[in-house]
Amino acid sequence: MPRFLRFGFALILLMALSVLPALADAPASAKKMKAKNPPPPPPMALRHPIVAKWTTLQGMRYYHEGFELDGKMGPTLGSVIYSLNDPQATALLRKSENDESVGLFGSIGGSGLFLTGLFTSNYNQQTNQINISPASAILMSVGLVTEFIGDLVLIESRTSKFAAVERYNQVVRGEDDPSVENWKSGQPADLSVAFNF
User: Residue 68: pLDDT band by 50, 70, 90 thresholds?
Assistant: First the structure.
C-alpha cells in the first residue's frame, strides 16, 4: 500500500477517534439526566429568564440564575426549558438537538469523503504534480458539498436553540399572549388585545 494512502487512512482514523468520545458521551449524559429525579419546577412567578451572551471566541452562551447552562456546574439548557412544559419551546429545542446531530454527521462525513478523495489521488514524483482521477474528484466534490450542507444545518440548529430560549423567556416574562396564538390557528380573537390598541 502506498505511503500516502496509509497516511490518509491514519488521518481519517485519528479524526474519527477524536469525535467518538463526544458522540459516545451524549447518550450517557441523557441517561444521567433521566436517572436523576429533578425537583418539581418552581411556579411561573419564581422563574427567571435565560440570559444569552455572545462572545467572539466562545460563541453563544446561555446563563440561568448565575450558572452557565450546558456547563460543568448547574443545570442543562434542556432541563430548564423542558421543565416549563411549553410545547413550542420544547419542539424548538428538540429540532435544535436533531439538527445538531445531522449537521455534525454531515460535516464530519463530508470531511472524511474529501480527505479520502484527496489521499486516493496519485502523486507523480517525476513531475511533482498530483494526478486526480475522476473518482477522486467526485469524492472530493461530494465531500465538500456534504460538509457545506452539514455546516448550514449546524447553523440552523443554533438558530433553533436561540428561538427556544426566546420562547422560554416570553413565557416566563408573561409576554405569551394566547389571543395571538388563537389568531394564528384561525380562531377568532380580539385584535385589540393582540395588537395592544
Answer: confident
76 and 70 in contact (C-beta within 8 Å)?
yes
Per-residue pLDDT at 194 exceeds 50 = no
Task: Using only the alpha carbons of the chain, give its radius of gyration.
Answer: 24
Give the three cell numbers for residue 145.
458539498
CB 140 within 8 A of CB 114: yes
Q: Distance between CA atoms of 16 and 144, rounded to whole angstroms?
A: 18
Element (H, E) at 46: none
Per-residue cell: 17: 477517534
- HSE at residue 38, side-chain half, CA atoms within 13 A, is 15
Q: Which residue has the cell 394566547?
A: 178
Give the model confidence (pLDDT) of 131-179 as tens digits.
788 888 899 999 999 999 999 999 999 999 999 999 999 988 887 655 4
Per-residue b/e over 131-153, b at no fewer than 16 CB within 10 Å?
eeeeebeebbeebeebbeebeeb
Beta bridge partner(s), residue 54: 60
What is the domain partition of the chain in residue ranges?
3-14+84-174
CA 102 to centroid of chain Cα atoms: 8
DSSP 8-state secondary structure symbol assigned to residue 50: P
49 C-beta neighbours (distance < 10 Å), count: 16
List Cα–Cα distances, 112 to 20, 124, 132, 137, 187, in angstroms.
14, 23, 17, 14, 51
